[in-house]
Design brief:
The structure holds two protein chains of two kinds.
Chain A: H1 7-22, H2 30-40, E1 49-51, E2 61-63, H3 64-70, E3 88-95, H4 99-110, E4 115-118, H5 127-130, E5 135-136, H6 145-155, H7 162-170, H8 172-182, E6 196-197, E7 207-208, H9 214-228, E8 233-234, E9 237-245, E10 250-257, E11 263-273, H10 297-304, E12 309-310, E13 315-322, H11 336-339, E14 344-345, H12 359-370, E15 377-378, E16 383-387, H13 390-396, H14 400-404, H15 406-413, E17 424-433, E18 436-438, E19 451-453, E20 458-459, H16 470-490, E21 498-499, H17 501-512
Parallel strand pairs in A: 3-4, 3-11, 4-8, 11-19, 18-20
Antiparallel strand pairs in A: 1-2, 5-7, 6-7, 9-10, 9-21, 10-11, 12-18, 13-17, 14-16, 15-16, 16-17
Chain B: E1 4-9, E2 12-17, H1 22-29, E3 48-53, E4 60-63, E5 73-77, H2 98-103, H3 115-119, H4 126-134, H5 138-145, H6 153-156, H7 164-179, H8 184-194, H9 199-207, H10 210-218
Parallel strand pairs in B: 1-5
Antiparallel strand pairs in B: 1-2, 3-4, 3-5
Helix pairs in contact in B: 4-5, 4-7, 5-7
The chains are: A alpha+beta, B alpha+beta.
């Protein structure tokens, strides 16, 4: 139930509903999209970026908040940690217990390597768990990996590293099969045909889903499998610095118990960074759909050890974060809501765009509608636009919402809004880190030997914007690949003397560059104490 | 001045704004959370919480990130509950009720008190899905338990010591792997890719100048 103040606009939305359902809004031209992005997308706001003064990407622009943690002090000094008697020794050390880390662990274990996971919260506390809408794979007869490639390459502004993107699309069907064989329950018809839909910017219906718990279903299955394989998971333990060996190759990490603050040393032949995203950095003050630990830790660890970043200046603002009620402000409203037919409607009840433009375009369009065009709905906590969910029941028949997006129904039902009968209010929310560490097709960083990366911490797979359903896909494809390659590489590695000299060197760079900062990183967790709401 | 309510965190009283969730109220009170906080969006089950409103006999369970504070709410978080998770090989397990008898025999000691269902933070019919598991109807168990976030509150209330979320997890994996129909089109596509059927197409895309890629993208046909 919405309060009195929303009723006028709600009436307009309801009155226009049948007409709006029938409407087929035009898609924007390439030129229209370019102009819209330049004027309204947060990535294009030049005053929100800083130039890096030190490190492998010196001279590049990144968001202020990222620059601050990339150029911050270590939590330790190089000489304060005893590297001579490691607490853990393993072939493959995986930092991060989300979908990429778990996939890597399963494959490295399968390949016969000794593998362990360290994760600062619990295994599964990750953005993977919160991915709702689905996972792409070109497995229908009218589709092909080549068409998938073109969709993703164009959607990412032709900036993806092609060797990574071709791996993503070509390994996609196999990834779905792997998950299915592990017991992931994809939505299927009675004859086994996968139920697939569009996402923003797709030209074929290739979005596979498990209701709107797609990521949760994948994550809990992977977690179950990791435990079944007796792979050690050191939880509530963060990696706070990579350890290199005397040859400059990755050789482990300094760990910190999140509760007792005890420092531990893990020595490894190869290391996989699978630390995920950065939503909790709240770039440009945006709320986020991300989990509690999404603080770009892997970028900091890698950067300090000399690994290069790619496209770290590009973030994804998901067009439909919750704008109201405030208790769930910024939470994700899956794109699948639009895949199922709901359209975006302004305060006057007008459809103002095609609902399935790519995410960057859709986000910019909503920001314009609420800003320059002043057609937003005032929520007392900023503005939003309507996402007309009752359209789904009219198009797909009664019961469609409970069958296909029960999590969305539940999330709003707790606040007295029945999305089957009433539309919801949305506004862009910080969702995904497009950029990250630069890797080759084997998932190894391009300039630190034996350091692998998988998942959201990678840059370059998607270019400068990512399509819905390609992230759940990349954590599986690149997670598995990182596990396989890191295990294989471990067989050939002899670890030299361990060192933290890169930490010392980085401290010197900070002071040589005249950077004055009190900040220490990685950030590990956001600080929300004494804040009323986020 | 916004309206406040009194809440009791582990028995200690705090005044907090009434519009907060239990999780943000804890942070408002000054807690820097490490445990008991995961996705903050109702999907991960990290923030299982039990509460009782003063003067009310009923004990409630919820997710702290998805529940608004109320006046005189006595709150205790349940950031960890020792569920029993049996280890098994998904490739070789039986797919009938035998597997439950082997791994989770305690489900047959269910006394039908329904405390699990009453406690479920997701509003699931937990006792019903355990009944399906007992008789080996894993498809129904999977369907009924699908929205489970594995927070463990059900198990904390169970006099029979059942680890409901783990029972359901096993049922879902058996259903997903063995009982759900296979996807012929998926198997076919995996075979085609292994066979190299798309190599030429992909190779062409790898070489194509960006201008031509733009042309291709902007004029591609989009399935209705």
């Amino acid at each position: 139930m919405y309060s009195e103040k929303f009723q006028n606009s709600l009436e307009l939305v309801e009155k226009a509903r049948d007409k709006n359902i029938a409407l087929e809004p035009e898609r924007m031209t390439a030129k229209q999209k370019e102009d819209l992005l330049a004027a309204f997308h947060p990535d294009y706001r030049q005053d929100q970026f800083d130039v890096l003064k030190i490190g492998p990407n010196k001279g590049d622009k990144v968001p202020f908040e990222l620059a601050e943690i990339l150029q911050a002090h270590s939590r330790i000094t190089a000489d304060s940690v005893d590297l001579s008697a490691p607490d853990y020794e393993t072939d493959v050390l995986i930092i991060g217990g989300g979908g990429a880390g778990a996939s890597a662990a399963i494959e490295a274990n399968e390949a016969g390597a000794d593998v362990m996971i360290v994760t600062k919260l619990r295994i599964g506390d990750a953005n993977t768990m919160m991915a709702e809408g689905g996972i792409q794979a070109a497995d229908k007869p009218n589709d092909s990996p080549a068409i998938h490639f073109v969709d993703a390459f164009g959607g990412g502004h032709f900036a993806a590293k092609r060797e990574l993107l071709s791996k993503l699309v070509c390994d996609a069907p196999e990834a779905i099969k792997w998950l299915s064989d592990l017991g992931v329950e994809f939505d299927k018809d009675a004859d086994g045909t996968m139920v697939t839909t569009h996402g923003g910017g797709t030209s074929r219906k290739r979005m596979h889903a498990a209701k709107d718990y797609s990521g949760a279903e994948i994550m809990r299955t992977l977690r179950d499998e990791v435990i079944n394989r007796n792979i050690p998971v050191i939880d509530f333990t963060s990696a706070i610095e990579l350890i290199l060996d005397e040859n400059g190759n990755a050789a482990g990490a300094v760990l910190m118990n999140m509760e007792t603050k005890e420092l531990l040393v893990a020595k490894a032949k190869t290391v996989i960074i699978a630390t995920g995203g950065a939503g909790r950095m709240h770039y440009q003050g945006f709320p986020t759909s991300n989990h509690y630990g999404a603080t770009a830790d892997g970028l900091v660890l890698g950067y300090r050890a000399g690994a290069k970043l790619l496209y770290a200046e590009t973030l994804q603002y998901h067009p439909t974060g919750v704008a109201y009620p405030e208790q769930i402000f910024g939470a994700l409203v899956t794109e699948k809501v639009r895949s199922l037919g709901a359209k975006l409607v302004n305060v006057k009840g007008e459809v103002f765009m095609h609902p399935l433009e790519t995410r960057d375009v859709a986000a910019a369009s909503i920001i314009r509608e609420c800003g320059d065009r002043a057609n937003g709905v005032d929520t007392d906590n900023g503005n939003g636009v309507w996402l007309d969910t009752p359209m789904i029941e009219k198009i797909g028949g009664e019961g469609t919402i409970m069958k296909r997006i029960p999590a969305m129904w539940r999330m709003f039902d707790k606040y007295g809004i029945d999305i089957r009968k009433e539309p919801i209010l949305v506004y862009p929310t910080l969702h995904y880190q497009n950029g990250g560490l630069d890797i080759d097709a084997n998932c190894m960083t391009t300039n630190v030997e034996n350091l692998f990366v998988a998942g959201e911490a990678v840059g370059g797979i998607h270019g400068k914007n990512r399509l819905m359903g390609n992230s759940l896909l990349d954590i599986i494809v690149f997670g598995r690949s990182a596990g396989i390659n890191a295990a294989a590489k471990a067989k050939t590695v002899t670890v030299g003397k361990l060192t933290l000299s890169h930490v010392e060197k980085f401290e010197k760079e900070i002071s040589d560059a005249g950077i004055k900062t009190e900040t220490v990183s990685p950030k590990l967790l956001p600080n929300y104490t004494k804040q009323k709401s986020i | 001045m916004e309206k406040t309510v009194s809440i009791f965190l582990f028995g200690k009283k705090y005044e907090v704004p009434e519009n907060l969730t239990i999780m943000t109220a804890m942070e408002y009170a000054g807690y820097q959370l490490v445990r008991g906080c995961g996705c903050r969006n109702g999907f991960c089950g990290a923030c299982a919480t039990i509460y009782r409103i003063k003067g009310d006999r009923e004990l409630h369970a919820c997710l702290a990130c998805q529940t608004k504070v109320e006046d005189n709410m006595y709150i205790a978080t349940l950031p960890f509950f020792p569920l029993v998770k049996q280890v098994y090989d998904i490739e070789t397990i039986p797919t009938t009720e035998t597997v439950m008898m082997q791994l989770y025999p305690e489900i047959y000691a269910c006394i039908g008190c329904n405390a699990c269902t009453k406690a479920c933070t997701q509003g699931l019919n937990v006792m019903q899905y355990i009944a399906y598991a007992q008789r080996g109807d894993f498809e129904k168990c999977a369907e009924e338990s699908f929205d489970c976030v594995m927070c463990g509150v059900c198990s904390s209330r169970c006099p029979a010591g059942i680890s409901h979320p783990q029972v359901a997890m096993l049922a879902r994996r058996i259903n997903g792997k063995y009982l759900a129909p296979g996807s012929a089109h998926l198997e076919e596509r995996v075979k085609e890719i292994k066979n190299g059927d798309f190599n030429e197409l992909i190779e062409a895309l790898m070489q194509k100048p960006v201008d031509e890629m733009k042309e291709l993208y902007n004029n591609r046909d989009i399935e209705k």
